[in-house]
Amino acid sequence: MGRGKADKPGIYCYFSDWDPLLNLDDTSLARLFRAAIRYGQYGEVPELSGMEQILWQILAPKIDRDADRYLSRCESGEYAVYCREEKKAGRTPYSFIEWKKRSTSFVIER
Questions:
Q1: Eight-class DSSP state of 44
Q2: CA distance linking residue 64 with residue 88, whole number of Å
Q3: Helix, strand, coil share (%) of the chain residues, nearest 5
Q4: HSE-up (13 A, CA, CB side) for residue 87
């Protein structure tokens, strides 16, 4: 079961990150929010200008950071399942690093 951007449930929307967006008019806010959703889900980099582009430069790294954290948690969970199953079978599991090198079931698409 590989995981990629399309497998994530969404993007995080922190109040502190989005407060500056409240100064945008509804059209600009909708355009920026749509861009964030499409970037988070499909990796599409939007073409924006002006204030939208400035705010995007603040938001995009945070979306990337949260995506990396999410994928890391997924990977850790898959490793925990692997360890549990190996121990049940009486085998010693590989270290996380070795498992990561050998694993074909976990694919991170960034």
A1: P
A2: 36
A3: 70, 0, 30
A4: 7
